[in-house]
Sequence to fold (130 residues):
Amino acid sequence: MAGQAWQSTRDTLARILGRGSEEREQRALARLDETAAEVVRAFEADGSDGADEAAVLARVAGQWETRLQDFLDEHPEARGELEALVSQARAALPEERATRVTQTISRNTIKGDAIVIGSAGRDITIGRKP
Fold:
């Protein structure tokens, strides 16, 4: 994780999350470094059968997905910057080392008595239509 691609991605993501605040940028850098260290520890652990690594990757991916979604909820104008960063990071990795994760985020508007449940491929609305 200490390669050039990681450093560039880390620094750019921290700058985006900082939104001009040095304090927020430093917090983002610290959090990214903690995450990187956790992933490295999982992969360097003796006797691992691969399940530990997968569990750590799934957990930290979920944490960052939530953080980034919360960030985009507060700063929707940053979506383009984040998308550009993802493209840049993907291009920097050799194909054999690249991990592809796609997350589609949809916005639902709920009015009245309805429950919206996300499912694989589609949304299901239960109750009265808005």
About this structure: The CA atoms of residues 106 and 118 lie 9 Å apart. Residues 4-105 form one domain.
